Fold Polyamine aminopropyltransferase.
Amino acid sequence: MNEKNWITEYVDKNLGFTLKIKEMLLDEQTPYQHIQVAETERYGRILILDGVFQTSVKEEWTYHEMITNIPMMAHPNPERILIIGGGDGGAAREILRHETVKQLDICEIDKRVVEVSQKYFPTISKEINEKNGKLKMHIGDGIAFVKEIENFYDLIIIDCSDPIGPGEGLFTRNFYKDAKKALRKNGIIVQQTESPIVQQKTVHEVYKAMTDVFTNVNVFLAYVPIYPECLHSFMAASDDIDIRNAKITRKHPTPMKYYNEEIQKSAFVLPEFIKEAIYKGKYTF
């Protein structure tokens, strides 16, 4: 195997996910992270941050539809939304399909993620490229941004990278307390929370941190092909809404490729070994 034609994300010293590439289109170091864009044989163009696969043109909807539509549909009338991270624009695109939305703020720490996505991933970054009037981009630290807000947002989406580097502080109790303060009544936060198979300890620790701050914390799952072991977890938290059992009062945007009404419920059904890991800290892997 010619190593120049392959790229690997190493989950740990024993596990990696390797893709064959046609061409490396971009390879640069920003003040915050190492950014790469590669053209792959299987998933088309892919964005890589600090060696971690983030999104690709052929399967990005698996992640973006789930991190947005599950909480959006659980909320009775989501008007003001904040995305922390999400500089690729995929979550923003899905949020802005909902007619209830009046304001969408994105706070991305690394402006190069936004610029690179606009250039190399225009279908994902569609709403940013088209300068949707409901959307405002803030380049800066999401942790500092949230500290200044009180009783304002209906939904905060933490669409960040792994809990290392720029994303590390977004997985802490202190941040969740600030995010809670920034929500108004019926407010929800949702966060990508890593693989419930190969990152079980991380998922358990995030669950403990969220349950220390919020009354209702629910875990849901989605299959994301370029993420470790394909199975990915998300957590949705609120003091006022039981997201798992929320009554859905309106139709979701169409068409969808992953999300549907049945998945709104079934995504919260967890295998027993994942329950053991998340709720009790008993790890299978």
Summary: The chain has two domains: 6-56, 60-280. Residues 60-280 form a domain with the Rossmann fold fold (CATH 3.40.50.150). The chain has a mean pLDDT of 95.
